[in-house]
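Reviewer 2 asked us to include a model.

Predict the structure of this chain.
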Amino acid sequence: MRSLAMCCLLLGCLAWGETVEITPILTAPGDPVYLKVALGEIERASQEIRVMLSDCRRYSGESPANSLTDALAEAREKGLEVKVIIETDGNPAPETRDAFAFLREKGVEVRWDTPETTLHTKLLVIDWGTVIVGSTPWTYNALFGSYQADLLIRSREAAEAFVELFDLVWQGKLGAEERLGEVSPPALIPIPELPQGNLVHLEVALGLLGGAEEELLLALYQLRRYPRYPDSPSNRLVDAILDAASRGVEVKVLLEGGEGNPDPRFARETRDIAAYLLLHGVEVALDPPGDTMHAKLLVVDGKDLMVSSANWSYYSLVRNVEAGAAILGVPPLASIARGFFRAAWEEAIPLGITANRG
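Predicted model (structure tokens):
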């Protein structure tokens, strides 16, 4: 049961109580899988489309990245209800303003998010039954030059959880609390997250890390550790990674190196956490220069996986609006994600030699 009047967002933990279809959408530089899948789903929509994005851009000329906003405009022209929320960030890029203006001109209901919070989701919900959720914003580099991990989920119960998240953000009701119920594999766990909530991303990730027995594969745009704040949620995740390595789990962490990032602190902080992990026996690699590791992907023991918009940093885990999903006890899906990770790892730049575990 859910109660909007109480601003309480309950997370449906699905143990295949309905027919559920899940397809990993795994994008690599030069292979725009997300774009192809998202366009197909938008074109098949028959009633309504809801989109919630950390960034959405429209470019001058004939950029292929414009096809997504074109598809929304066409859906609206066909009579579908189309609602879009975009992160404002106080000073949106010109291409983001152009996307906003284009959609509004085409009759799409489009809003900026609430200025006092950060909308970091990459979420598409269609006809109350289809969800695309994960790491891909609607920008050229995200679609064509990055590693991204998303999921296509066909489930009315999962869609309901994400529609409720959308509606709360649309209405500016950001004070909801999330509660995670009991779940046994095989299961799908939708993970919508509001600012200052119950840290459901943290809870799910800690559970997966703590249960790892053989292999832990983690690909992230941003992983952070804060020495001055030992109780910070991301510190707890780092500790759980180290604990897995100490009990003999093979751990590999693949990070975005930050080359080209306008903030020099990004690359420095990435190298700080990489060095810390290396010193504790964890294998670490950075994505190749020129590519962007933007996925937020965790694969455990070849059977569990988690895909999300959330980085493992304080603001992502505590202050942002985020969205993701975990799939427990489904080796065929985890195997696909594992293959994607291993292929990216082969292209990555290893850092140092891991220390002996002891």
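The domain at 17-174+185-350 is CATH 3.30.870.10 (Endonuclease; Chain A). The CA atoms of residues 257 and 271 lie 8 Å apart. We have added this to the supplementary material.
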